């Protein structure tokens, strides 16, 4: 579920292989980098834009179509950020 700063999560995973592995890059050649990838990763991740202003319940409802079994992992990041900012007297949109 992506919302506030979701683009950073997308960037991380789109660049995961480059950031996590050794590779050789020839600057005088238009070829792609030659990766020295030694850790197979068999992940399937769906990045669902749920909106920066959506509350947690709305986010879950918006990803309902992607849930295929009874296992779902959610974090409390949205609630934590809101409560921290509220206690500190600052905007939670910062």
Quickly describe the structure:
The chain contains four helices and two strands. It has 94 residues and is mostly helical.
Characterise the protein shown here.
With about 90 residues, the chain is mainly alpha-helical. The protein has one domain. About 35% of the residues lie in helices and about 5% in strands. It has four helices and two strands, in the order ααββαα. Strands 1-2 form a two-stranded antiparallel sheet. The radius of gyration is 18 Å and the shape is elongated. The protein starts with 5 loop residues before the first helix and ends in a 6-residue tail after the last helix. About 0% of the residues are buried. The mean pLDDT is about 75.
Number of helices: 4
Fraction in helix: 25-40%
Lateral strand order in the biggest sheet: 1-2
Number of strands: 2
Count of domain modules: 1
**Estimated radius of gyration:** 18 Å
Q: Would you identify the regions where 5 or more consecutive residues have pLDDT less than 50?
A: none
């Amino acid at each position: 579920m992506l919302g506030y700063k979701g683009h950073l999560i997308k960037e991380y995973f789109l660049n995961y292989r480059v950031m996590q592995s050794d590779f050789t890059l020839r600057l005088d050649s238009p070829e792609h980098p030659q990766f020295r990838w030694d850790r197979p990763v068999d992940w399937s991740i769906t990045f669902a834009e749920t909106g920066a202003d959506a509350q947690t319940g709305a986010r879950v409802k918006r990803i309902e179509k992607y849930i295929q079994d009874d296992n779902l992992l959610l974090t409390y990041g949205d609630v934590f950020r809101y409560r921290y900012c509220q206690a500190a007297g600052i905007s939670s949109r910062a």
